[in-house]
TrEMBL record:
<feature type="signal peptide">
    <location>
        <begin position="1"/>
        <end position="32"/>
    </location>
</feature>
<dbReference type="Pfam" id="PF10048">
    <property type="entry name" value="DUF2282"/>
</dbReference>
<dbReference type="InterPro" id="IPR018740">
    <property type="entry name" value="DUF2282_membr"/>
</dbReference>
<keyword id="KW-0732">Signal</keyword>
<protein>
    <submittedName>
        <fullName>DUF2282 domain-containing protein</fullName>
    </submittedName>
</protein>
Length: 91
């Protein structure tokens, strides 16, 4: 092997290792965030939902205030304190 090949191979391996470490770090922090939050249904203002519903295809498209299948992500334990809040979709 010549010096250029060794240097290129070393650079590629280092880049792959850095990418793997970065991905592992972001996954664990995302999982930690999931454990501290919950979906809260039925309390969202029209057009302020976090994700799709049965009647709309993307975030921010709920049609009415308090739509039963529209949710927002809140700190765990908050939803049960809100009037009309539920951790499962309403019909």
């Amino acid at each position: 092997m010549n010096k250029t090949t060794v240097k290129t191979t070393s650079t590629l391996l280092a880049s792959a290792l850095m990418a793997a470490v970065a991905m592992a770090g972001s996954t664990s922090s995302a999982q930690a965030g999931e454990n501290k939050t919950e979906k809260c249904y039925g309390v969202v203002k029209a057009g302020k939902n976090d994700c799709q519903t049965a009647t709309s295809s993307c975030a921010g498209t709920s049609k009415v205030d308090g739509q039963g299948d529209a949710w927002i992500l809140l700190p765990k334990g908050t939803c049960e304190k809100l009037v009309g809040g539920s951790t499962s979709p309403k019909k």
